[in-house]
Amino acid sequence: MKGGGRRPDQVAEAIRQVVADALLTELRDPRIGFVTVTGVRVTNDLSVATVRVSIMGTEAEVEEALAGLESATGFLRSKIGRTITARIVPEVRFELDRGVEHAARINRILGELREERGD
């Protein structure tokens, strides 16, 4: 895979830090509950940053949290622009990461199987 060097990775890490910090200290939207940034992917041309998030809660709470995150994209993009040194500030998109949810489900199923077997 031909990459854009280290720059997209560096920008992705900077964006992850800015978004995670803003979630903890600055965003006050009540829709944004238990949200964790699990990773960021940035295109090679640095035009789009996809922020992967894990959200704990019911499906309705997850949808509300995603809507809250979407409404905060302008604020987050301006924070990112003040943090990174790039000609273009990437467009911020959010993507739900269900990996943590799947891992918890698998652990629960394995625990149930152990109980059934008497382990």
Number of continuous helical runs: 4
Q: Tell me, what is the CATH class? A: Alpha Beta
| General form | elongated
Major β-sheet strand ordering: 1-2-3
Q: How many separate structural domains?
A: 1
User: Low-confidence parts lasting 5 or more residues at pLDDT below 50?
Assistant: none
Structural class: alpha+beta
- What is the string of SSEs from the N terminus onward? HEEHHEH
The counted number of beta strands is: 3
Strand residue content: 15-25%
Going by CATH, the homologous superfamily would be K homology (KH) domain
Task: Determine the CATH topology.
Answer: GMP Synthetase, Chain A, domain 3
Radius of gyration, whole Å: 17 Å
Structure commentary:
The protein is of the alpha+beta class and 119 residues long. It has one domain (7-117): GMP Synthetase, Chain A, domain 3, CATH 3.30.300. The chain is 52% helix and 20% strand. It has four helices and three strands, in the order αββααβα. The chain has a three-stranded mixed beta sheet, sandwiched between helices. Strand 1 and strand 2 (48-56) form a beta hairpin. Helix 1 (7-25) crosses helix 3 (73-83). The longest helix has 19 residues, at 7-25. It starts with 6 loop residues before the first helix and ends with a helix. The mean pLDDT is 89.
